[in-house]
Amino acid sequence: MSLRDDLRYSLRSLRRQPGFAAAAIATLALGIGATTAVFTVVDGVVLKSLRYPDAHRIVAIETRWTDTGRVTPRTTGGDLEDLRRQRETFEAFTYYHGGGGRYGPGRCHGTAAGRHARGG
What is the tally of helices (H) and strands (E) in the chain? Predict the structure, then answer.
């Protein structure tokens, strides 16, 4: 059998069972759409670098308690002020506070290159 014969046989079979053909086409469409959506997210989040100059120099600071070994992705205000004063450690310095409080969730505030920055 040739490829042309296989295609003709497939089309005849699908015409005889339109419900099965619709289900197969819908399944393929959903699979292709889901794969495209997942790849778009992975490409934007994981594969592409950050859209900042020298993105490889951006760091996140965490707190590690030496007595318990506990680590949190947050740093206290006092530690942030100490880091800000150590100008030889960082070229520029800013912080993000995503918790509640008077700034509200998702608000950014901090010190950037020696200037106070607050946004919302």
Answer: 3, 4
